[in-house]
Amino acid sequence: MIVCPQFRGRASATDAEARVEEAKGLALAIGLVVADAMLLPIRDARPATLFGEGQIQNIATACELHEADLVIVDGALTAVQQRNLEEKFKRKVIDRTGLILEIFGERAATAEGRMQVELAHLDYQAGRLVRSWTHLERQRGGFGFLGGPGETQIEADRRMIRDRMAKIRKDLDQVRRTRGLHRDRREKAPWPVLALVGYTNAGKSTLFNRLTGADVMAENLLFATLDPTMRAIRLPAVDKAILSDTVGFISDLPTQLVAAFRATLEEVTAADVVIHVRDIANPDTAAQKTQVLAVLEDLGLLEEGTQAPTVPMIEVWNKWDLLEPERAAQLWHAAREAAHEDEVVVPLSALTGEGCEELLATAGRLLTGDAREHVFTISAADGQRIAWLHAHGEVLADEDVEGEEPQRRIAVRLTSREFGRFCGI
Fold first, then answer.
1. Buried b (16+ CB within 10 A) or exposed e, 204-218
2. Is 40 exposed, middle or buried (0-12, 13-18, 19+ CB in 10 A)?
3. Any residues with CB less than 8 A from the CB of 276 and at least 6 apart, and which?
């Protein structure tokens, strides 16, 4: 049973029906069978139960009617509210944060992902020990790290959680340092990085698989991808680039997860080009775009206020194959108008591959847009620098130069970034 509270006077980026459908998607993502979903208006939130007595009775009746074993409240519940609702419904109750944490815990595949999820889960549970234990009034004696005389069980449990969280944070700091070293190596390599971002279930992983030939999990589920994945791809005028698939964004993401997944999102901040993938067939696509742009602004990828991108950005209108012909014609006209306003929009279908070649060509143009022709005279024995120019630039001419020592004169087009890297070799 899913219950979506709608608070009076509180504006939402997503409309009521879209919010209900998203809540259903979250439940389905973890394998739950949705018996029913209802939208309940909230005039004044009750501190003890959130809902009024009449609404609680309606929910309880619906649970009996549909034989629901679990009640999901698509909002934030305090520990007291959660406990009281469980007593009234005689069923397990979880809120939106708890549900998302369960999904993340099931999907995390790497050691880093599991640590991030555990940290978020411990942070969430730390304030809910009041409803998680039945022996809270017991006291225990002891000394040293076992706890002093008079220490209650809840204090000992909270201390254990704090210690575990401190250890995980220390381990994650090491992960961030390692990730930073990897980024430094890519800077020296140097290969440009393209990062896929977007709302969850927008089709990022399907596009990633289409462009790279990889087999990353790509299903019609919210949060199908949690751990960042990278693969090398070829672009027009770019010998090699790295494409990064990232976790999807969502409205009202739990604050615990925003902090815990900062290391994952750091990959986006190091990108040379950001590819914002939108599910253009979704009726709520405009609100989803607003949510994604808000996250990108927090990451410093958009200028505060103007929302002008600080790095080249491509907006991909995915799932084009799901559009009706009339709607597709309208959006095609809108995409052309966006191009006149210096916005880069590429309509495509990651499922069929239509438009993917245009995306690669567009990314290549953005990466080489400031390329200039340079002429270098290099010793013929300096194979490393000669090979670097052929690998990372568009070589226009390469000829031998007569002299006391064999030399090569190479005319090559390089971006300002590549020119700086070449000078540092």
1. bbbbbbbbbebebeb
2. middle
3. 197, 198, 289, 292, 296, 313, 314, 315, 316
What's the CA gap between 58 and 64, in Å, rounded? 10
What is the pairing mode between strands 229-235 and 238-245? antiparallel
Do the domains 191-367 and 2-103 match in fold?
Answer: yes
What is the domain class of 2-103 according to CATH?
alpha beta
Establish whether the linkage from the previous residue to 325 is cis, with ω within 30° of 0: no
Rounded (10°) angle between helices 262-269 and 111-126: 130
Helices 262-269, 153-188: inter-axial angle, 10-degree rounding: 20
pTM for this model (two decimals): 0.71
CB-CB contact of 197 with 297 (8 Å)? no
* Helix, strand, coil percent content, the chain, rounded in steps of 5: 45, 20, 30
Q: What is the pLDDT of residues 153-174, one digit of tens each?
A: 677 778 888 899 999 989 888 8
First-residue to last-residue Cα distance in the chain: 62
Kindly report, residue by residue over 273-324, the tens digit of the pLDDT: 999 999 999 988 998 898 888 888 877 888 877 778 888 899 999 999 999 9
Q: Which one-letter amino acid corresponds to residue 6?
A: Q
Domain spans of the chain?
2-103, 108-171, 191-367, 372-423
Cα–Cα dist 172/116, whole Å? 8
What is the rounded distance in angstroms from the CA atom of residue 307 to the CA atom of residue 296? 9
Top CATH class of 191-367 equals alpha beta
Chain position carrying tokens 């549970």? 125
